[in-house]
Design brief:
Strand content: 5-15%
Helix content: 55-70%
CATH architecture of one domain: 2-Layer Sandwich
Shape: flat
Oligomer: single chain
CATH class of one domain: Alpha Beta
Structural class: alpha+beta
CATH superfamily of one domain: Beta Polymerase, domain 2
CATH topology of one domain: Beta Polymerase, domain 2
Number of helices: 20
Length: about 475
């Protein structure tokens, strides 16, 4: 189905200037270029898109050569990031239906049918659309003429709230098991339902997720829980019995009400932060997800069973034990790994019964104090005995938050000042260049006039000499 510009609500004004410029440059170089995927899906649903993806028949190497400020990322699936300041436009080359070596790239699968390389390139969107994951993500927009092209009934599925995989579901899940996670994520994000043929193979094929690299799974878990629909994602993962695969060390607790209620409450809070435009940090997410397990081990290992304060060394060892198990599924970067461990240490230090003023100042001036206090407030919702600690630390939290906001405003002011200085310098440069051009033009005009006057004087002199018979 092809819709002309007057048959759908999307216009070029819905896209960033960087996205439109990228398409325009590619098209001027003789290539096709379409906006596709989530940005089109979201616009048709009345949602403002955050990212813009472009599909083209230019290979990654050609795209990289066209745009000086760009980089090729990925080996399994090559993508080009075109950079415009802080904005990144993602450009992918049309994929081919051919699952073999080809003249324009290579596709390689392992013994389970999973694509370990998917770089066999196609020539047009007729091929590329069949390599997209779901129908609602396979709608193409051409900014040159405003046409919208839908090959697989994505417009129908958007209208009826359906997530339907393209092609044979079992084959597509085997090619890339992460499509199972993506199906669940879109279901949670959009409130859609999975088509029967999309949903049925999940129970049988979800075990394929263990073949996915843990680094890639780390990114997928972040998308599930940190994009404003974390609470819904948690419920879907439990319903499809997928959380056990994502959190191997938590298999015994993921269905317990204590775990579910706490994590669900925390994710509800983080979803609200996202809705307010505030950021959520991965280290805090994992601190919440793993908290029940960490505390359980601490209680078992501590001599004072039931205590809420533990030796720092024991907390660090327990955190490392739980995090190492979690890394088997999601490869937590070392910096985040350290932040989680440090947060746990600071959290349990809040309950020290013999805290001195010096220790109190050290705790409340720690960069992770506010995060530990946020965790304390979440826990106090389920443990009323922690409320006195919430009240005690609240003034310190408020003071820390005020200092952080003041520092943030100073950074913003400093950044704006630098930007203004750059603008002033650019304007001064333009003004100086304009002044030089004007002077040059006047000089050239004067030189031209002077030469013309000289020619006229010479002509008059020659005429007078001829008239006076002075020339031989």
């Amino acid at each position: 189905m092809v819709l002309t510009s007057d048959q759908h609500p999307i216009t070029n004004s819905n896209f960033s200037k960087a996205a439109l410029k990228t398409c325009d440059v590619l098209q001027k170089h003789g290539f096709s270029a379409y906006l596709v995927g989530g940005c089109i899906r979201d616009l048709l649903l009345g949602i403002k898109p955050k990212d813009f993806d472009i599909a083209t028949n230019a290979t990654p190497e050609k795209v990289h050569n066209i745009f000086s400020s760009s980089r090729i990322i990925g080996r399994r699936f090559k993508i080009v990031h075109v950079l415009y300041g802080n904005e990144i436009i993602e450009v992918t080359t049309f994929r081919s239906n051919e699952q073999t070596k080809s003249r324009r790239g290579t596709t390689v699968s392992d013994g389970h049918g999973m694509l370990v390389r998917d770089n066999s390139y196609g020539q047009d969107i007729d091929e590329d659309c069949n390599r997209r994951d779901f129908t609602i993500n396979a709608i193409y927009y051409d900014p040159k003429d405003g046409t919208l092209t839908d090959f697989h009934g994505g417009l129908y599925d958007l209208k009826h709230g359906i997530i339907d995989i393209i092609g044979d579901p079992e084959v597509r899940y085997a090619e890339d098991p992460v499509r199972i996670i993506r199906a669940i994520r879109f279901k949670a994000k959009l409130g859609f339902k999975l088509s029967k043929r999309t949903e049925d193979p999940i129970a049988k094929q979800k075990s394929l997720l263990i073949n996915i690299s843990n680094a890639r799974m780390f990114e997928e878990v972040n998308k599930l829980f940190l994009s404003g629909h974390g609470q819904a994602s948690l419920n879907e993962l439990i319903d499809y019995d997928l959380l056990r695969l994502l959190m191997p060390g938590q298999r015994s607790v993921v269905t317990d009400s204590e775990f579910h209620d706490f994590v669900s409450y925390a994710l509800e809070s983080s979803d609200a932060r996202t809705a307010r435009g505030q950021m959520n940090k991965p280290y805090f997410l994992y601190a919440v997800l793993l908290f029940t397990k960490v505390r359980s081990i601490l209680e078992q290992q501590s001599a004072s069973l039931g205590s809420i304060t533990y030796p720092e060394e024991l907390v660090v060892q327990t955190a490392q034990q739980v995090l190492n198990t979690q890394n088997a599924a999601t490869d937590i970067p070392s910096a985040i790994y350290y932040d989680i461990s440090s947060l746990y240490v600071l959290y349990f230090s809040l309950f020290s019964p013999f805290i001195t003023q010096e220790e109190l100042e050290k705790i409340t001036s720690n960069s992770r104090f506010r995060a530990s206090y946020d965790l304390l407030k979440l826990r106090a919702h389920f443990e009323p005995s922690l409320e006195p600690y919430v009240e005690f630390y609240k003034p310190y939290y408020d003071e820390s938050a005020l200092k952080a906001e003041t520092l943030r405003q100073k950074k913003i002011a400093k950044r704006n000042e630098k930007r203004q200085q750059k603008r002033d310098a650019m304007n001064a440069f333009k003004k100086d260049a304009q002044s030089k051009n004007e002077k040059k033009a006047k000089s050239e005009s004067f030189s031209k006039d002077s030469a013309q006057d000289r020619q006229e004087r010479l002509a008059k002199a020659r005429a007078w000499r001829i008239a006076m018979n002075l020339d031989p």
